[in-house]
Amino acid sequence: MITPAPLYAEDLTVGSRMELGSWVVSREQILAFAGQWDPLDIHCDETFAATGPFGGLIASGMHTMSILQRLTATAFLTRVAVIAGRRVTGAELLKPVRPDTLLVGTRSIDAVTLRADGRAVVVTTGQLEDQAGDVVLRMTGELLVARRPEQPPGDIVS
């Protein structure tokens, strides 16, 4: 298999948007994630959740963010010359995620700031929509991305 060349900061176009793929959130995934990482009754006790403010079991916000990260990692970060994540600057949980919800992810490039040290700060916004097309999560953050390496001049052939 041929691995494509990485995308460097100079290859990222402000305003561009990438499809990240999809994920179906199962009841079992919601219960397992909540049991380990966010053991609140609304996420892990179906009887309690049925009488709660959302009328049923919902995924933890951290679970929803983890799904966006998974889709981002496999469809975007593996293609970009990422050095490190810098920070999450905002996250909006706009709609509860229920069992058997299909989530579709996208990521847009909001800003690319080239630095003299061979790196760039790239601001991106990731989003998850449910099968109805409603945005359930919007999350913005900064990445440190490598700039294209300078190529040494080649041999001159006459």
TrEMBL record:
SUPFAM superfamilies: Thioesterase/thiol ester dehydrase-isomerase (SSF54637). InterPro entries: HotDog_dom_sf, MaoC-like_dom. It comes from the Bacteria. Residues 24-125 form the MaoC-like domain. Pfam families: MaoC_dehydratas. Belongs to the enoyl-CoA hydratase/isomerase family. This is MaoC-like domain-containing protein. It comes from Rhodococcus qingshengii.
